[in-house]
Amino acid sequence: MGKYRIYIDESGNADLKRSSIAKERFLNLTGVIIEIDYVDKFLHDDMENFKKSFFKYGSDDDPIIFHRKELMNPLPVGRLSILKDAKIRDQFDRELLKKLQNWNYKVITVLIDKKEHIDTYTVWKYDPYHYCLRVLLERYVFFLENMNATGDVMVESRNGVNDGRLKESFINIYNNGTEYLEAIKFQTLLTSKQLKVKPKEKNISGLQIADLIANPSRNDLLVEYKLKTKKNTGFCEKIIGILRDSKYHKVSGKLLGYGLKKLP
After folding, report:
1. Structural domain containing residue 237
2. What is the pLDDT of residues 80-103, one digit of tens each?
3. Stated pTM of the model
């Protein structure tokens, strides 16, 4: 029986009060599912070797951490500054796309339209982040069941207060289940009732992949549901192509509702 971990990153924020602001209307959680044995035996070292082929390492105690925003807009000084060279940038982008295509992982993205959420639920308003987490975990458990596997859950640290609330929400789901899944499903297929919360600075390869694809996956959902009229282009479009080709979780070939889920 295999053991997996889902690495979760967010794009957007959970503030319902700012949902009427166009740039802050949506929140999505992207989960990257990877077999733990694959991470230990291949993925971590392969990602580190890829970084070292482009960037200078002082030592392994000071690694490069892949952040999408920093890679897109590198500072004029520092180890990422070489990406300002057009030839190196082109080579790096091509090699990164190959890695994202060839690495073994599956993706589930859940997006909530906070404005629609408020308009729909005039009395009951589930915390958007926790709502997305619940729906994401349901699909992860279905994935584990289909794979005859078990797994655990890791999220990127946000801050002390929010991390504590997330841990409590996770334990509640583990102990009580949801309206669609009984607690026994979570308790049987998840190997821990404790949510793992780690900062990206810990150089966790799964969290870095989640960071790289969270925004493109969000944009994919926005276009799919006509919440964004401008089509995705350039590097973002290429990542979306990879996700749709082989990385999104599908059931019987069906993507929407499984690998891609919109709320409410």
Report:
1. 3-263
2. 999 999 999 999 999 999 999 999
3. 0.94
